[in-house]
């Protein structure tokens, strides 16, 4: 979804804006430090970041990975905190011409605007001398050419491609360990299963550690909460994948876009939340809770479960163990609609082929674009990807019988410090250099944390690990691997319609209508009231002509498929 917040398991998502001096612009985002070292002067690039680690590391050469980059290329990134609406910032910089040398651009429409304005440099001339980039990114380059009308390459993307051995989004539901044990470790899957389970649990445990026990908590106040989490059950089977928070979803089997709200599984998603609410099993504060509040509640063990935000569970479980409550740890489990279970559906494991949300360009203001691309080219190599995702050999990993193995130092740091990866320069915070979620040539994930068995060894508490064994799982992702099917999104997640077009304006209206009515649906006092609200919503919805939006998505999809085929020749 435009749960673009969903990340890769190697750190917290970061918004990155790269900035170096643009001679004569007067911008305060300028380059600094020209002291020569060897044949090349030091090249300091300011990077504006928004992440939990942005106050921890000020310069890349404070980290082990950053020191390697400086030693090899004499390039240093200086991290500057950034806040605000990033797309607005991108538009303002383009309008003023005061944009930095290297820039992360969100989504295809803005990439095209930068290209059409002459702000993005074509990279084709650098490809001729590239040692690694062309081969490493061969499957992706045809897709990356799509934003330009001239067919040239102006960008690369971060955090793609992904393969199923390295990426399991699996953002379903987490349930408290002690309640599972108390009820005999039932095999929960359908929404009916969870409602009955939670009803028994909250009746048996009205309080937890002196506080009122909460049912399921969810960060519905996040921008991606009501718009994304609420209808998301459509993706829990094997027919559809999420492609954003707009009005469409993608039918992976028929390879076409369909309307989100009119989908039967979407309705089941709202019905599930409504039933939780009516049974007193949905925390009423979920409507106003952000992820920060949700994390606080699960850190105390007060909630019986939490929905979707699985990336917080390991740190939460560690906190509970430290607080002397390991039995209150949370177990990540699958959930499907009742219909999906009756139909015996597998679960799609969504994999992104393209990720325009993390598009990176070199702008016309770059002082030395060739030098920047040389760095990107090297990070396309095996050595570069392993440094970017696994860290420094001897510090973060060692080789045992030819295999990369995490060091005790890494395990201890990652387990105890939520900012450890940022402090080491590993992963998402440096993903603009071209991070790929794939398997290395040594048949191990570049990022060893993506080896579930290896990461479980030190990221799971003993209580949680024992529970997975009792459930009959080989590891914490075992059910998902056995019951999941790889679902590469191909072009789907990269399709966007012009927001100023008639279809774009309809799209905005149907999303606003869906979000506006979401709380009403969830808070309906009975099934009959829910159905009445739903039918009234359908009447209002159809007046907007949502099919016009769906048709436009499919039209663009077909056009871009033809272009990719042409660029692949």
TrEMBL record:
Q: Which UniProt keywords apply?
A: Signal
What's one Pfam family here?
Answer: SBP_bac_1
Superkingdom of the organism of origin: Bacteria
Q: Which InterPro entries match?
A: Bact_solute-bd_prot1 (IPR050490), SBP (IPR006059)
- Which Gene3D superfamilies would you find in this protein's record? Periplasmic binding protein-like II (3.40.190.10)
**Which residues belong to the signal peptide in this entry?**
1-23
PANTHER family, per the entry: ARABINOSE-BINDING PROTEIN-RELATED, DIACETYLCHITOBIOSE BINDING PROTEIN DASA
Q: What is this protein called?
A: ABC-type glycerol-3-phosphate transport system, substrate-binding protein
